[in-house]
Amino acid sequence: MSSNGTSGACPSPASERIDWVDYAKGICIVMVVMMHSTLGVEAAAGKQGFMHLFVEFAKPFRMPDFFLISGLFLARVIGRDWRTYLDRKVVHFAYFYVLWVTIQFAFKAPAFAAEQGWTHVGVMYLQSFIEPFGTLWFIYLLPIFFVVTKATLRVPAIVIWLAAAALETAHIATGWTVIDEFAARFVYFYSGYLLANYVFALADRAREKPGLALAGLAAWALVNGVLVFTGFGDRPVISLALGFAGACAIIVTGTLLARANWLGFLRYCGEHSIVIYLAFFLPMAIVRVVLLKTGIIPDIGLVSLIDTIAGVVGALLMWWGAKRAGLNFLFERPAMFWIAPKQKRPAALQAAE
Question: Which residues span the domain enclosing 263?
Answer without folding.
Answer: 19-335
